[in-house]
Amino acid sequence: MMTTKMAASILEHGEDAFKKLFKFYKRRNPPPDFNEVINFSRPCNEKIFTCELNSTPITEEEVSKAGLRPVTDWKAFGLHGYPGFIFISNPFLPGSQQYWVKQCLKIYPQKPNVCNLDMHMSSVETENIWERSIDGIRRKGCGKREPKTLLEKLRWVTLGYHYDWNSKTYSPDHYTPFPKELHSLSHRVAAACGFPGFNAEAGILNYYRSDSSLGIHVDESELDHTRPLLSFSFGQTSVFLLGGTKREDRPTAMFMHSGDIMVMSGPSRLLYHAVPCIVSAPAGNVLPPCLGQRPEAEAQDDDIIQSVSEEDWEVSSWYLQTSRVNVTVRQVLGSGQDFPSAQASHLSSCEKSEEETQKNKKRKSNSGYERDT
């Protein structure tokens, strides 16, 4: 096993320190030592300090409808050296994560949203990924060997303004309505963190299998960087690396557990970050305990959170035994702002040759982990 001393040795060298630490945590043989990874569920690290959130803009009833505990009960932290970074340790009410997991697996991959499978399959074939996968998953749950389902092949989904993985831009011509319930959740979290006017306009969902990782990158394609980047994590635990304004800056490693929320704002909005690995669940604990909780109260008709059927949760929980889903939500445009040169961008895209288009499709279908938090 690679030791903590070896990790410290890696960090002493400024040049390519991020890349070296990424490889350190990504490697499987020998497995890395996670002793230097910050665990916000046990915040006893000198880098961590408690954040005071603002519960004034939103009522307890409003956050409850989105499946969240009262803001005054949230455990929020910052990191010394990372102004504008906020980590909220699982503020979800018991049972409410199940709803968001179901949305990510069953609802959000549906058309007209875009996913990686669209790059090499027809729209008819990807029309209903959930329905085309559940029978195969249920047979696998009974121990039968089956080919990979479409759900297991899912790597990313885009919402709202659909991110173009090739040009790394958003376009007004490539937009579908952003999910209202996810907008409501994001608006409430942003308001509690000091951004009451946050408008959720784009989302990227990344689906991590046990051997997945996310390369070093910075989220800068949005036109307004004064608005925060929100990140919601569900399922298995991951290691998240938060670096600096330069790609080679030394990063800080931390765990993201199911239900955790990260907010990158201010000076931390444009920092490099990455996800080198998904951490295997401890023996005997297939799912994080928080995902096995049932709702404490019946959902009301006007609640955002609605109950999840046993059939849907059977499939969702099987998937999460070896997977993690991450949702990042962004505001693309500032108040009163518009896209520049939209027509020129459209003309440029039309000038691509068929050969280039096919090449890009092939590359994009395999590049689902270029962005995410």
UniProtKB/TrEMBL annotation:
Region span, Disordered: 338-373
GO molecular function, one term: oxidative RNA demethylase activity
Alphabetic keyword roster: Dioxygenase, DNA damage, DNA repair, Iron, Lyase, Metal-binding, Multifunctional enzyme, Nucleus, Oxidoreductase, RNA repair, Transcription, Transcription regulation, Translation regulation
Basic and acidic residues compositional bias, start-end: 349-359
GO cellular component, one term: nucleus
Cofactor: Fe(2+)
SUPFAM superfamilies linked to this entry: Clavaminate synthase-like
Feature: compositional bias, Polar residues: 338-348
Catalytic activity: an N(3)-methylcytidine in mRNA + 2-oxoglutarate + O2 = a cytidine in mRNA + formaldehyde + succinate + CO2; an N(1)-methyladenosine in tRNA + 2-oxoglutarate + O2 = an adenosine in tRNA + formaldehyde + succinate + CO2; N(1)-methyladenosine(58) in tRNA + 2-oxoglutarate + O2 = adenosine(58) in tRNA + formaldehyde + succinate + CO2; 5-methylcytidine(34) in mitochondrial tRNA(Met) + 2 2-oxoglutarate + 2 O2 = 5-formylcytidine(34) in mitochondrial tRNA(Met) + 2 succinate + 2 CO2 + H2O
Binding site for Fe cation: 217, 219, 273
Database matches in Pfam families: 2OG-FeII_Oxy_2 (PF13532)
Record-listed E.C. numbers: 1.14.11.33, 1.14.11.51, 4.2.99.18
Subcellular locations according to the entry: Nucleus
Domain named Fe2OG dioxygenase: residues: 199-333
Note accompanying the cofactor annotation: Binds 1 Fe(2+) ion per subunit.
BP-aspect Gene Ontology terms: DNA repair; oxidative RNA demethylation; positive regulation of gene expression, epigenetic; regulation of translational initiation by tRNA modification; RNA repair
Endpoints of the signal sequence: none
InterPro entries hit by this protein: Alkb (IPR004574), AlkB-like (IPR027450), AlkB-like_sf (IPR037151), Oxoglu/Fe-dep_dioxygenase_dom (IPR005123)
Subunit structure: Monomer. Interacts with DNAJB6.
Protein name: Nucleic acid dioxygenase ALKBH1
